[in-house]
Amino acid sequence: MHTDLDVYNRSMDLVEEIYNLTKQFPDYERYGLVSQINRAVVSIPSNIAEGAARGSTKDYCRFINIALGSASELETLLRLSERLRLANTENIIKDRLIPVQKMLYKQRVGLQRRI
Asked: What is the CATH number of the domain that holds 14?
């Protein structure tokens, strides 16, 4: 079950942390960066869960790839937020996001071996 996966639980923790971060963004970014950041971070555990529920390893791998894409998008948006001086995101990237990305890569490699 996906709720037993460490990568799923860590990505859920990341969602909470990112939502708390984006609450501090200026109101004028509510429909810009905040919306994009929140969609990207929610996509990570959502795709892990959907992939785990699929009936085939090939489908699961495809959804892990989507989660990886969302994680990369999130990293870009957080780095952009840093450059625009909207938030300090380096620790979130280093301590939370990169470990999730590494776990997703490892999961993808393991799934690809089974295809």
From this structure: 1.20.1440.60
Tens-digit pLDDT profile for residues 70-93: 999 999 999 999 999 999 999 999
Q: 19 is in which domain, residue-wise?
A: 2-114
Q: How far is CA 91 from CA 17, 23, 71, 80, 95, in A?
A: 11, 17, 15, 14, 6
d(CA 67, CA 25): 24
Q: Give the pLDDT score at 105.
A: 98
Q: 3-state DSSP: the chain helix, strand, coil percent, rounded to 5? A: 85, 0, 15
Looking at the 3D structure of the chain, how many domains does it have? 1
Read off the pTM: 0.96
**What is the rounded distance in angstroms from the CA atom of residue 73 to the CA atom of residue 5?**
22
